[in-house]
Amino acid sequence: MAQEKAPPSPSQDLTLEWVRDALVRQEDSIVFALIERARFPCNAPAYNPSLFPQLGGRSLVEVFVRGAEGLQAKCGRYQNPEEVPFFPDDLPAPLITAYNFPQVLHPISASVAVSDAIWYMYFNDLLPLITVEGEDGNYASTAASDLICLQALSRRIHFGKFVAEVKYRDAPLDYTTAIHAKDRDALMKLLTFEAVEEMVKRRVKKKAMVFGQNVTLEDKDSDAASQYKVDPSVVARLYEDWVIPFTKVVEVDYLLRRLD
Amino acid sequence: MAQEKAPPSPSQDLTLEWVRDALVRQEDSIVFALIERARFPCNAPAYNPSLFPQLGGRSLVEVFVRGAEGLQAKCGRYQNPEEVPFFPDDLPAPLITAYNFPQVLHPISASVAVSDAIWYMYFNDLLPLITVEGEDGNYASTAASDLICLQALSRRIHFGKFVAEVKYRDAPLDYTTAIHAKDRDALMKLLTFEAVEEMVKRRVKKKAMVFGQNVTLEDKDSDAASQYKVDPSVVARLYEDWVIPFTKVVEVDYLLRRLD
């Protein structure tokens, strides 16, 4: 039964190894992005929707992200099913001819998104943990850095669609019963591998230590080595509390509609 | 004489240590940006000004950078004297109240820029060295990554204005004669410290090795360690052939007008 519902353009590329390599590589992008955001203090004025009346009741960062997504949509960013915008309703059409991206996901994948939850988590939970208080006036650069963080997190979390698809293809019969029963708990159980999650958390923590250290030509003493640009335990917590759980929500949401 | 020409708002912050720390930190940003750009293949269609007639004879990357600079200008990016746009002529006015950035440079600094040389170098010399041939359709993401690289390089190279200012303040009499004589060679000589340049090249190469490695939880074997995401010797060459020489051009151009 499940085999009849193969995606429209199955690709030989969709392998567990391809998905795994992409997820591992995206960890680097997320850590780089957080380190770059931490160059600036919190810069709270960028997040206050009533501070600049010229912006029509939106915060500077919202104006920036909406504008940047519009520009990137014109350049074709959201033609790639890996990319999910935060403000999908107002996007202009691409100015350029569509690239023929491989369509490996079920068409319902376009309706699976947790962007609002990522947005809320990033500004309310994560940002206070990676920035120091204060402001330096670099609101545009700050908003640009926020966008890079948001996009890296969104890509990683929504990659759950590919994770779910490859897991489903690997064992369609195991998933079909739970999908038909709309049993979220059973799906969550099928998708959860605690040992893998522990390994991911330890690896991103190590990446934060490696990429966030002050690299000098001298062998470093323990003091210098302990001054990371972003607290490695915060990066582990980001994955534990938000990235991994959000990804699993995406996986379950995708699977629940996988046989529609 | 030189002391009479102090900058309009001298800041206690402008110390050699502040400048040095900023330059060292910006090395990390540049290496991160190059590694992120190298995620994508060359994606040549993004650079072809005649491929998408809808773009009016501009390449996709130029359309993207112009649009992004416009958006960032509205959000106040170029109020910070550290930031220099690539397309300054068409920028919209900021939508937000100006932040009171410390004015530590001579006012002529606004007219000192080597943006065209950076643009040419980036696309013609550097990009072929850090990307593989081919295309994957991610033109918007590619252009966004190019922008991050370009901005990081521009900030680093135009930071030469601060380098020049702090060196000038440290020894105004040494510089005044050469400035009055408009002697570029003498200024270049005063500004050049080969041992420091060698150290910088070795450090950025090391950063490319540290940040561009594949971090795993296992102790790595020599094979894995040698697969860097961007060739460390290319990063050393980027500094040797372009970043350091361009920075010195900025320093000399700034100093030549420092007493205007």
Note down, in words, how this protein is organized.
The structure is a homodimer of 260-residue chains. In chain A, helix 1 crosses helix 8, helix 3 packs across helix 4 and helix 6 packs antiparallel against helix 7. With 260 residues, chain A is mainly alpha-helical. The first copy, chain A, has one domain: Chorismate mutase, AroQ class superfamily, eukaryotic (Chorismate Mutase, subunit A), CATH 1.10.590.10. The first copy, chain A, starts with 15 loop residues before the first helix and ends with a helix. Chain A is built from ten helices and no strands. Helices cover 57% and strands 0% of the residues of chain A. The interface between A and B is large, with 51 and 51 residues.
